[in-house]
Amino acid sequence: MELILLQKVTNLGALGDKVTVKRGYGRNYLVPQGKAVPATAANIAAFEARRAEYEAKAAALLGDADARRARFADASVTLYANASTEGKLYGSVGPRDIAEAFTAAGLPLNKSEVILGEGPLRRTGEFEVMLHLHADITVPVKVVVEAEA
Question: Is residue 60 part of a domain?
Answer without folding.
Answer: no
